[in-house]
Design goal:
This protein is of the alpha/beta class. The protein has four domains: 126 residues, Rossmann fold (3-Layer(aba) Sandwich); 220 residues, FAD/NAD(P)-binding domain; 151 residues, FAD/NAD(P)-binding domain; 157 residues, Rossmann fold (3-Layer(aba) Sandwich).
C-alpha cells in the first residue's frame, strides 16, 4: 500500500483559541512534506468527516493523522476502514486543557506532539492479520457443576458447539450434595430446590452440547482456535479439538481436621457445612452422636477463613450457606435456638433479604471472635469475645456446632512449584537473566503443554491469575477462561453470572482468533511480533518474560512464537537485548524516531525537556482525565504512549539522554500482589530492567535519579500534576543534561 499522509488539524473545543493552527500546519507541510493538510473547526462533525473521506477516496490518502481530541473519544466517528492507518494527536486534553493558552511553550508542545506522530508514521506499516486455517469454533468446558453447566448452556445458546467434561460419573457438582440452595429468584427469602434435574435435562437435550462424564484431561496442547485436548476415560483416551476452554472446576471445603481448636474431630457433633447439608437431605436434622433431633445449634463463621494461619481470604459463600442452614433448623422446629457467631455478615445483593428473613425467624446473630468449642457429655459450648459489647459471651448446651470452613479452589490441591529446572538454571546462570517465573500450581486439571508449566499460573491462594478489574474471566493463558469459585470465592448466584461472562469471552476469543485479532486487552489488534532470527543469540529472555506463554523454543533454541496466544503487549520486544523483535505498527526504531523528533532547546534557552513514557492502559487515561478536569502541569514534559511498560527497551533511555532530554519519567500500572497491569507483569518487568539503567547513566556521566518510574492507575488523575511537577523540579535541581547540544 502506497503511503500518502493526510493531516487534519481541528480548531474546535478551544484549540484554535489557544494555538496557532497555521504554524502547526507548517510543521506538517514544510518539515515533513505532508501532501495533504486540512483545517476545520469540527472534524468530528458530519462535514469534517466527509472532508477526510473525500481525501481518502479522491486524493488516495492512506495514512490519516487527526490533530484534535484524545484518541480515546470519537473513535467510532473516525473509523475509515481496515485499509486506512489512523493516528491521533491529542492537542485538546494533553495540551490546550493543561497549559496556558496563546503561549510560546504551549505552541512548542503542540508542535512536538505533531512531530512525534509524523515520525511514528515513518516506520509504521499496516499490519496483516495472522489468520489460522480452519479455526475451530467449539468450546470445551471443564467441570460439570453449576458454573460449568451454565457456561455450556450459554455457549450453546449462542450457536456454538460445546464439549463438557466432568470427572465424576454425573453432572451436578455441589448441587448433587445440596439439599436446597440459597434463593436465586425473587423474593430471595427462602431456600430453593437445586433445580439440578432440569439443568441436566436441558444439557442432555441440547444437540450442541457433547458430555463426557468420568473423564479427565490428560493433555492440552495448541493455542486459541486450535487446542488439541486428550481426554482420559476409563482405560483409554479420546481426542477433541476446540477453539477455547472454560475452566469451571469449582472449589472444595477447607480441610476441617486443621480446625481442632473449634472442636472438629473432638466431638462427632461438630460438623462442617457440607456434612450438615447431608444431614438435612436425610429428613430430620439429628445430631450424629445419638440421633437426637436438634434443639439448639451454633454456627461459626470464618472457620479457617480470613485467618492468616489458614485461609487469608473470605470464601464469600459461607455466610449465605449458614443463613440457609439456620433456616433449615427453624423450618424443622420454629422453637429451636439458633446462634450464628460471625465476624461480618456478607450477604451481598439480594441476599440481604435472605439475611433479614433469618433474623425475623429468630436466628440470633452474634458479632464475635470465637475462642473455643468444648464438649460436656455431648452438649457443646461455644466461647467467644463479643465484639459489640466488648465482653466474653457464650452459647451452651448446644446439640450441634456447624463450621463454615471456607473454600479452596480446585487448582490449589498441591504445593506451588516453580518453573522447569532449565528455567531456574537459566535464571541463576547470569546476573542479568530474567527473574524466576512466578509459581505454577500443579493440580493436574488441564495439563497444558506450555514451557512455563502444565497448569494455569496462580498469583496467590491458588486461584488462576487474571486481571481481576478489567478482564475478570481471562487467565494468563490466552483462550482459557476461568468461571465460578475456581476463579475467585463466590456464591451460587455470582457463579451463574460469572459463568455467563466466561462463556461470552470464550465466544469472543474464537471470533477474534478467526479474524486474526487479539482478544484482550488490545481487542481487535491484528499486529503480532516479528522475529529476525538471523540475529538471535538464544538468550531466552523473550520466552521467559512473556507473561502469557506465547513463545516457545524450536529445536535450536530459537524463539517459536504462537501468534494466537499473543496479547500484543510488546514485553518480548522490551526484553530482547538485540532488538530483533518488532511489530509492524510498534517497534524499537519507531519509538526511537518518535523521541528523536522532539525539539530539545539549547542549554542557554533554559527550557528543560522531560520525556514521559506512559502506559496506554492506565497512565494515558489518567492524563486525559487530568486534562478534562483542567489540571495544569509542567510545560517542559513530552509524553509518548507505550502499549505497556513491559515493552520498554533500555535503548530508548539511552537515546533520550543522548538526545539531550534532562530526565525520563516512566508512568506504569501498579504491580505486585494487587497488580493492575493489564498485561500482568509488564510494570514489574520494567522496574527490573530499570534497575540496570544506572550503569548506562554512569557511562554517560549522568545522575541515575534522572530516570524514575512511578505507578499510576486511571483514578490517579488528580495526582498527575504533583507527580509530573515534582519530578521536573527534581530534574531542574540537577541542571541541564550535559549531553544537550551534542
Amino acid at each position: 500500500m502506497a503511503k500518502k499522509i493526510g493531516v487534519y488539524i481541528c480548531s474546535g473545543c478551544g484549540i484554535g483559541d489557544a494555538l496557532d493552527i497555521d504554524a502547526l500546519a507548517k510543521v506538517a507541510t514544510k518539515e515533513y512534506k505532508v501532501p495533504v493538510c486540512q483545517k476545520n473547526a469540527f472534524f468530528c462533525g458530519k462535514e469534517g468527516v466527509e472532508v477526510i473521506k473525500k481525501d481518502i477516496a479522491e486524493n488516495e490518502v492512506t495514512y490519516v493523522v487527526i490533530a484534535g481530541c484524545s484518541g480515546r473519544v470519537n473513535y467510532d466517528v473516525f473509523n475509515f476502514g481496515p485499509s486506512v492507518v489512523l493516528e491521533r494527536v491529542n492537542l485538546r486534553e494533553r495540551v490546550v486543557w493543561t497549559q496556558e493558552p496563546d503561549d510560546e511553550d504551549t505552541q512548542m508542545m503542540a508542535e512536538d506532539y505533531l512531530r512525534i506522530t509524523l515520525a511514528k508514521l515513518k516506520n509504521l506499516e499496516l499490519p496483516e492479520a495472522y489468520v489460522i486455517e480452519n479455526c475451530n469454533k467449539r468450546v470445551m468446558v471443564v467441570g460439570g457443576g453449576l458454573a460449568g453447566m451454565t457456561s455450556a448452556v450459554e455457549v450453546a445458546k449462542a450457536g456454538y458447539e460445546v464439549v463438557l467434561v466432568e470427572k465424576e460419573d454425573s453432572l451436578g457438582g455441589w448441587l448433587k450434595r445440596s439439599y436446597k440452595i440459597a434463593p436465586l429468584n425473587s423474593p430471595y427469602t427462602d431456600p430453593e430446590d437445586t433445580g439440578l434435574e432440569a439443568r441436566v435435562k436441558e444439557i442432555e437435550g441440547n444437540s450442541n452440547i457433547k458430555v463426557y462424564t468420568s473423564t479427565t484431561i490428560e493433555k492440552t496442547a495448541g493455542a486459541p482456535g486450535m487446542f488439541d485436548v486428550t481426554l482420559k476415560q476409563g482405560g483409554g483416551t479420546l481426542e477433541e479439538k476446540v477453539g477455547a476452554i472454560i475452566l469451571a472446576t469449582g472449589a472444595v471445603p477447607y480441610e476441617p481436621s486443621k480446625l481442632g481448636h473449634l472442636g472438629y474431630g473432638a466431638s462427632p457433633n461438630v460438623v462442617t457445612q457440607a456434612q450438615f447439608e447431608e444431614l438435612a437431605a436425610k429428613g430430620t436434622i439429628a445430631r450424629p452422636s445419638d440421633g437426637k433431633a436438634v434443639q439448639k445449634v451454633g454456627f461459626i463463621q470464618c472457620a479457617g477463613s480470613r485467618d492468616q494461619e489458614h485461609l487469608p481470604y473470605c470464601s464469600a459463600a459461607c455466610c449465605v450457606e449458614s443463613i440457609k442452614q439456620a433456616l433449615y433448623v427453624k423450618g424443622q422446629n420454629s422453637e429451636a435456638a439458633v446462634y450464628v457467631f460471625y465476624k461480618d455478615i456478607r450477604s451481598s445483593g439480594q441476599y440481604e433479604h435472605f439475611y433479614k428473613k433469618a433474623q425475623s425467624e429468630g436466628v440470633m446473630f452474634i458479632k464475635a471472635d470465637v475462642t473455643g468449642v468444648t464438649d460436656d457429655g455431648g452438649n457443646l459450648t461455644i466461647e467467644a469475645n463479643d465484639l459489640l459489647m466488648g465482653s466474653p459471651t457464650m452459647a451452651d448446651e448446644l446439640d450441634m456446632v456447624v463450621l463454615a470452613n471456607g473454600m479452596v479452589p480446585t487448582t490449589a490441591f498441591e504445593d506451588p512449584a516453580y518453573g522447569t529446572e532449565a528455567q531456574e538454571e537459566a535464571a541463576c546462570a547470569a546476573a542479568d537473566a530474567a527473574p524466576v517465573p512466578a509459581p505454577i500450581i500443579k493440580s493436574n486439571i488441564l495439563n497444558l503443554e506450555y514451557r512455563q508449566g502444565p497448569e494455569l499460573p496462580s498469583l496467590k491462594y491458588g486461584f488462576p491469575d487474571s486481571h481481576f478489574i478489567c478482564f475478570p474471566y481471562e487467565t494468563r493463558r490466552t483462550g482459557i477462561y476461568a468461571a465460578g469459585s475456581v476463579r475467585r470465592p463466590m456464591d451460587m448466584s455470582q457463579a451463574v453470572g460469572d459463568a455467563t461472562g466466561a462463556a461470552l469471552k470464550a465466544v469472543q476469543c474464537i471470533e477474534m482468533t478467526d479474524k486474526g485479532g487479539a482478544v484482550h486487552p488490545r481487542s481487535g489488534d491484528i499486529s503480532f511480533p516479528d522475529f529476525q532470527l538471523n540475529r538471535c543469540t538464544q538468550c531466552k529472555r523473550c520466552t521467559e518474560e512473556c507473561p502469557f506463554g506465547a513463545i516457545n523454543e524450536d529445536e535450536k533454541g530459537n524463539p517459536l512464537p504462537n501468534p494466537t496466544r499473543c496479547r500484543r503487549c510488546g514485553t518480548c520486544m522490551g526484553a530482547c537485548p538485540e532488538r530483533i523483535i518488532s511489530f509492524k505498527n510498534y517497534s524499537v526504531p519507531m519509538l526511537g524516531n518518535m523521541l528523536k523528533s522532539i525539539e530539545v532547546p539549547e542549554e542557554d534557552e533554559e527550557k528543560p525537556r522531560v520525556l514521559i513514557f506512559a502506559c496506554e492502559n492506565d497512565a494515558i487515561p489518567a492524563l486525559d482525565m487530568a486534562g478534562i478536569n483542567r489540571l495544569q502541569y509542567s510545560k517542559w514534559v513530552r509524553i509518548i504512549p507505550v502499549r505497556c511498560l513491559g515493552s520498554l527497551n533500555l535503548v530508548w533511555i539511552n537515546d533520550a539522554m543522548s538526545k539531550g532530554f534532562d530526565g525520563v519519567l516512566l508512568m506504569g500500572c501498579k504491580h505486585g500482589d494487587d497488580y493492575q497491569c493489564h498485561f500482568m507483569k509488564g510494570s514489574e518487568l520494567a522496574g527490573i530492567r530499570l534497575s540496570k539503567v544506572s550503569e548506562t547513566l554512569d557511562r554517560l556521566g549522568l545522575e541515575s535519579e534522572r530516570v524514575y518510574m512511578t505507578e499510576v492507575n486511571v483514578m490517579d488523575y488528580d495526582r498527575i500534576p504533583k507527580i509530573i511537577n515534582e519530578f521536573v523540579e527534581k530534574i531542574d535541581k540537577f541542571g541541564p543534561n550535559p549531553m544537550k547540544g551534542f
